[in-house]
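Two records follow; treat each independently.
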Amino acid sequence: MKSINKIIYSCLLGVAILGGPGCSKFLEENDPSNLTPDNYYTIPEHAQAAIAAAYAQTRFIGGGAGIFVQNFSLPEVLSGTAKTETGQNSDLNNLIGLSYNGDNGLIGNWWSGSYGVIAQANQVLANVPDITPMDATVKKQILGQARFLRAWAYFYLVRMYGDVPLLTAPINNLTDPELYPSRAPQEQVYTQIVADLTEAENAELPWMDATGRASRGAVKGLLAKVYLTMAGFPLQKGASHYQLAADKAKEVIDNSGYALFANYNDLHTLSQENRVEHMFQIQYLGGVADNPFQGVLLPNFKDVSAYGTEIGSTVPTQQFFNSYELGDKRTVDRQGFFYKSYYSGGNGALKDVSNAYIFKHFDVIANGTSGTAGTAISSLNWPLLRYADVLLIYAEASNEVTAAPSAAAHAALKQIRDRAGLITLAVGTFTKDSFRTLVWKERWHELAYENITWFDMLRLRKAYKESNDSFVDFVGHVFPDNNAVLAEKHLLLPLPTFEMRNNPNLKPNNPGY
């Protein structure tokens, strides 16, 4: 595995190696330059290739971590809403059982993958300003996108590991002392995240960008999420940052043109990528950068797909599926977020698969559908930020700074529940506390299996108890599927063992590891 200094130094050559573009619309283009370590960052095309390389680094979330698992599984199984049907990956099993340490492959991959994004973004920010001649607006937009990506990666790191090295410039030689950085306090990391996103807000980005690059809406949406997190644990900024979160989310609601899809199936339809409800996604294109998630999410060898390997490594727990309200459209078979039946071989007779599986990310083209064989090659993007999340951020944050929920907060929540076919009581029937609880429930049920739930648990220090539809303290919560018990140590991941061995300046590790 790569340690942080190797990742940073390797990105000296990152543009030459990863110069292939990173988003659907420009994945299909040929690199217009012949990049080598001696001539990059000299013409505008190099700037485009460099930022594309930074986007490409975000695909680490779909990267592998040994047999039958991918990195995205880590936040899902730690939330207690997902389990595995294979049991053949010890790292995944240890995460599910809450018995992991710094040797865990997924924990190492999230660290390395996030710093890979940061290293490439730092290269862009350090070198693109000197490219001349270059259109000033295009340059400003590329720099804004790099700041967005750096903030996005640090936001994962600080929530997962707490105090982490804060690196905002490239490492240009192997004797640089920053190859062995110390950990910066969490508040300092958040200050940098906010600074990067604030700068990106002013980068003249379009409100929406159907090519898949960061837009002004995505920047503001992520900033709203950052403020919401800062309001909770561990920083506990409280009312001031709830207000900032509400204000930033409201800017998106009022100005961006985003909306909820009328049909849940549009969430995983190729023609709807990077638009309407999708604010920011990891970009995939079959044959260039295939979506790697399909086999992992399929039932374990139940023959419902064109894929030869059906893994079932990350699937819903029955308890969580049962916790949706009666009549919730999100639970309707093959129309909402789940399926309990599918076609034999992907295109044959419909058959029952007994348990509920994730349909939210299901690629019908790749897997197949009734009468149409699947291609077993997926171009489906992976969601990172949806408009539904922004609506729920606004509902939660604005409720925290008023004596009772406002009509606007109620309307934001009601949009989510209306689409699900659920009745929402009139605004005047809610107290501050009852509205807060309902918003939390909607976050759990609407945003499930999008690498969001665990981070909500960390900032709230709460867990959802499905058996009685309530929220309980994080510490002491028992996962009903396997009886694993959350403890104080689980509020942070351990730093990877390989990193601790390589860099003594990182010691001590997080409490409990």
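The next record belongs to a different protein.
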Amino acid sequence: MGQQEARSRYVLELPAVETLGYHSLQLQKKGAKASLSMPLIVVPQRCHQPEAIQHGGRIWGLTVQLYGVRSQRNWGIGDFSDLAQLVELTGQAGGQIVGVNPLHALFPDNPAHISPYSPSQRGFVNVLYLDVEAVPEFANCAPAQRRLASADFQARLKAVRAAERVDYVGVAQLKFEILELLFAHFLDETGKRAAAFAAWRTTQGAELENHARFAALQAHFRVTNDSWGWPAWPEAYRDPHSSAVTDFAAEHAEAVAYHAWLQWLADEQLSAVAARAEKNGMAAGLYQDLAVGTNPGGAEAWAWQDVLADGAHAGAPPDEINLMGQDWGLPPFVPHRLRDAAYAPLIDILRANMKHAGALRIDHVMGLMRVFWVPAGSAATEGAYVHYPFEDMLGIVALESQRNRCLVIGEDLGTVPDGFRPRLAECGVLSYHPLMFERSQDGNFRLPAEIPPQALVAAGTHDLPTLCGYWKGEDIEIRTALKLFPCEEVRQRLITERGWDRGRMLWALERENLLPSDVSKEAAEISPATVAALHAYLARSPAQIMVIQPEDIFGVIEQPNLPGTLEHQHPNWQRRLPLSIEQWASQASFAAITTAVQAERPK
């Protein structure tokens, strides 16, 4: 046995640090030259809440899947100009918030990868949402204008605009063809635009450079080797700090600049949306959505691979909606590695997503406390929970919320740990309350007055049936066809319960004197009057925020996403709304629902 080294442990009592923010604590022993340092993060007690929802204030707005928005001028996919128009429309109707699906960067080289919840990088933006004709360079770029006006381009544009579902590949080919021409034109710029881009690029720092380098590398290796994601690249390029990556960035500086430029354009157009909301006096304005994780082959996983788990995915155990459990295919953070990184990945993505937003929805907010890890290649039923430094992470959410003046909404559906919701409530985080989950112990729907004030209410979400789909049992029929039920007994039980739920919904309306007089309790389809009444029912609650889905306004049956299905099984994230945004205000259903809601919670 060798001689053991003597060690001492001390307790250092720090004076109170009242200045919120990110500090550095340095320790130096008297007489020693070297010092030790560690981050010290001082956090507030609560998240930011706008004045409009304090002291009993209640607001409402719309929430959309941006890709599915039709307009007379977009290129087959909803874009940031559509979003600005939607903000205007909502504000004119009395709404004060507009929610969207995650806008995170996907994979420009592989537009067929479409899930907004499996992004390449949550800190940057999906450039397919750019309004190409709104890019300032377009006005002075003759080659781009000629190409847009050409007969074959116009024919392709007409086809993607008319498509029933979003043709992501077709849209990407059209947009990138013109954007590349605009970038070539931009490279000749020497005035204010060029200086503005250079300054913006500098302020974004290493995060932007890593993202732009990743996109350039991925495009390069996909073209040459048909590979997918950084784990399939040549080994020398898998480390973002390697000399090979540095050399590539120097040799392909124009390609890297192109991807940084696209992000600059997206930042400009999102900033314009936020400005439109402010001009309309909207209390919350843009309501963004932060996905729970990142694609293992993407830019975020490349940059933070030392902090993410290898060989495990985040998911969820079996529940009433997803009876087989879920494997989301997203690598979770390793708790102690995240702490050792001073939570930099979490801080980066919170800050980026709050930048232009007045509210942020944190998908699967329980991930701040624990994440259900599923071993790669195993069934979701084989997973287990891994716990995280909850108070640290919640405190950072509150800090970034205050610094960015951004309301926080936690998507707390599914299996929730004991004590979790009360702690979120103490911190000022709003809870998530879709109608179908608002039940008393006897199975009946809760009265509006029983919904807690610190909440967001909605008829449904992108993962749940629309009101029309719920009434018809469309989700049950699809799950039956795809063999997603573990047994026939479970399927029959859900069919029976759905029949009861139709009656329960109507009885709930009757208790609030909202039931339309001509509604039949045996009707196979839900009437527009009943849909409007259900929205009035939710609007009557004390919940601080209510949001309305256009799918429910316009009687859409199909839900945007069916959890537990893959892209080849079901057309998730592809459905387009039936009407262009220019038609919304003239629709009787739009007027009926927005008027009913506005009457219950006036501006």
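Discussion point: The two ends are 77 Å apart (CA to CA). How would you locate this feature using only the token line?
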